[in-house]
């Protein structure tokens, strides 16, 4: 979905970008309540009072009230912008130096062209050895993005980032302003809970989309004329527990849950030793 080059000092690495993710969310169609038929939206020209086909629509940049400059796709492809065809690395920052919860957006696989294969893998290995991320800018579709390039599993991954002025301030959130005194015993218990639920690495294959499966079961039940299973009832007023007691109970539950999984591994180690 993008073709250009990475500028690494005086080295140019020709690459292609491919979208690394796809949405698997549930979507619904809007239906007429009387006929249960699809509701369609028409692209309507107010001045001419007629429908316009999607392929005929033009882009207009508003420069005044009801005054537009027509911008063609060819204009966007030939913007006087270095990042339209080049990812120019600005700096290198430590891995983990960019807050993922706020800045990270889209993910793209980066593939080298034949002529740039050696330089590509040289940069990838250098990023891995120095534990650094390359920060750059790239123009994708109709806007310029800040981006980060990582070494990942023998290849390079590019993530688009939010610009700093796109991130809203957390100032004024009531729950953050008041000072809270943390009990050392409660903190230690919270750490114990984290350790009991900790894994050596994140394995995403352990997780799946329960919402989509639940919805598919509801749809299947309706097709077969059955009653859909209802969600379990939830107390209207959540029970307020003593924080320390809640933490203790949580740690105990986590320990019990992990014991069956840990037992076979322990037996295997004993067998090996004997």
Brief write-up:
This protein has 274 residues and is an alpha+beta fold. It has helices at 73-77, 100-103, 117-130, 174-177, 184-196, 210-223, 243-273; strands spanning 2-8, 11-19, 44-45, 50-51, 59-64, 67-71, 86-94, 104-112, 132-140, 143-152, 155-161.
What does this structure look like?
By secondary structure, the chain is of the alpha+beta class. Among the domains are: 102 residues, Beta Barrel (Ku70, Chain: A, Domain 2), CATH 2.40.290.10; 34 residues, no CATH class; 47 residues, no CATH class. The chain contains seven helices and eleven strands. Strands 1-2-8-11-10-9-7 form a seven-stranded mixed β-barrel. The protein has a two-stranded antiparallel ribbon with strand order 3-4. Strands 5-6 form a two-stranded antiparallel sheet. α5 runs parallel beside α7. It is extended, with a radius of gyration of 27 Å. The N and C termini lie far apart (57 Å). The C terminus is likely disordered.
CATH class category label of the domain at 2-22 and 85-165: Mainly Beta
**SSE order, as H and E?**
EEEEEEHEHEHEEEHHHH
Proportion of beta-strand residues: 25-35%
What is the spatial order of strands in the main beta sheet?
1-2-8-11-10-9-7
Major sheet, described briefly?
A: 7 strands, mixed, barrel
Q: What level of helicity do the residues show?
A: 25-40%
Overall body shape:
extended
Going by helix content, strand content and strand pairing, the class is alpha+beta
How far is the first residue's CA from the last residue's CA?
57 Å
CATH topology of the domain at 2-22 and 85-165: Ku70, Chain: A, Domain 2
CATH architecture of the domain at 2-22 and 85-165: Beta Barrel
Radius of gyration based on Cα positions: 27 Å
Unreliable stretches (pLDDT < 50, length at least 5) are 262-274
Number of strands: 11
| Number of helical segments with 4 or more residues | 7
The whole-number mean of residue pLDDT values reads 83
